[in-house]
Write a structure and sequence with these properties.
This protein is mainly α and 269 residues long. It has one domain. The protein is 78% helix and 0% strand. The longest helix has 29 residues.
C-alpha cells in the first residue's frame, strides 16, 4: 500500500464509522473508485481500531464511570446505578454480534465483500433508517434503557456484518424504533462499538500474527493514527448536530450511493 491509499482509506474510515452510512462499504468500494488494490480485511480492522481509540478518548469519563459502577454491581457488591445498568446493557448488546461473527467469519471475509450486496443493503437499510427516524417517538433517554432494549439493539448490530448495513446506522435505527431520542441512540451506538471493534480487531490481529504472509505493520500503524484523528472529529460534530439535522441527509446520501453502485454494476455487466 502506498501513502495515498493509506491516507485515503484511513480518512474514509474515520469519517464514516460513526455516521449511519457504513464504513465497511466505503472501505470495500474505495479500491474500485480510486483504482487501489484491495487493502484486505487486516487494514480494515486496523483503521477500525483507530476509531475505537477515538471513542475511548471522547467518552473517557463515561467509560470510566460505567466501568467503575459495573464492577460495583457484581454479585459480591450488588450496587445498581444508571451507569452499572448501562454497562450490563453494553455487554448484552454485544453478545449477538460475537456469536454471529464467529459463525459467519468466512462469509464476512469473502462472500460478503460483494458490491452487489453492498448496493442492495445500502438502499434497503437507508429506507429503514428513514422510517425509524420519521416514526420514532424520540421520547426516551439512556437512563431508560432496559436489558430487552439492549438485546434488541444488539440483534440489529449483528446484521451489520453485512457491508452496506452500517453498524452505527442499524443500531441507531433499532434505538429510534424503541422510542429513544437521536442523541441517546447515537451515544449508545458509539459505546456499543467499543467491545465490538475491540474483539474484531483482536481476532484479526491474532490471525495476522499467525499468518505466514507478510504484514505491512507500518501501513497498519499509520492507518490507526489517521483514522483516529478523523473519527475523533466526526464524533464531536455528529453529536452536536444530530438532534437538529436528523437522519434525512444520511438517508439521501445512502440512496444515491446505492443507486450509483447498482448502476455501475449494471452497465459494467
Amino acid at each position: 500500500m502506498d501513502l495515498l491509499q493509506i491516507l485515503t482509506l484511513a480518512i474514509v474510515q474515520g469519517l464514516t464509522e460513526f455516521l449511519p452510512i457504513s464504513s465497511s462499504a466505503h472501505l470495500i468500494l474505495s479500491p474500485y473508485l480510486f483504482g487501489f488494490p484491495d487493502q484486505g480485511l487486516g487494514f480494515d480492522v486496523a483503521v477500525h481500531f483507530g476509531s475505537l481509540l477515538a471513542i475511548l478518548l471522547y467518552f473517557r469519563w463515561e467509560v470510566t464511570l460505567v466501568s467503575r459502577d459495573w464492577l460495583k454491581s457484581l454479585p459480591n457488591n450488588g450496587i445498581s446505578t444508571i451507569n452499572s445498568r448501562l454497562g450490563w446493557a453494553i455487554i448484552i448488546g454485544t453478545i449477538p454480534v460475537v456469536i454471529a461473527g464467529l459463525l459467519l467469519k468466512t462469509l464476512v471475509e469473502n462472500e460478503f465483500r460483494s458490491p452487489l450486496l453492498i448496493g442492495i443493503s445500502t438502499i434497503g437499510f437507508a429506507l429503514l433508517l428513514w422510517w425509524a427516524d420519521a416514526r420514532g417517538k424520540r421520547a426516551r433517554a439512556l437512563d431508560d434503557l432496559h436489558w430487552k432494549d439492549a438485546l434488541y439493539i444488539g440483534l440489529a448490530q449483528a446484521i451489520a456484518l453485512v457491508p452496506g448495513t452500517s453498524r452505527s446506522g442499524i443500531t441507531m435505527t433499532a434505538a429510534l424504533m424503541l422510542g429513544f431520542n437521536r442523541v441517546s441512540a447515537a451515544r449508545f451506538s458509539f459505546l456499543l462499538a467499543i467491545p465490538t471493534i475491540l474483539m474484531s480487531a483482536s481476532l484479526v490481529t491474532k490471525d495476522l500474527i499467525a499468518s505466514e504472509t507478510t504484514v505491512d505493520w507500518l501501513a497498519l500503524g499509520l492507518g490507526v493514527i489517521l483514522s483516529f484523528l478523523a473519527a475523533l472529529t466526526t464524533i464531536h460534530y455528529f453529536l452536536r448536530f444530530i438532534e437538529r439535522m436528523g437522519m434525512l441527509p444520511f438517508v439521501i446520501y445512502r440512496l444515491l450511493l446505492g443507486a450509483v453502485i447498482l448502476s455501475f454494476i449494471y452497465f459494467r455487466v
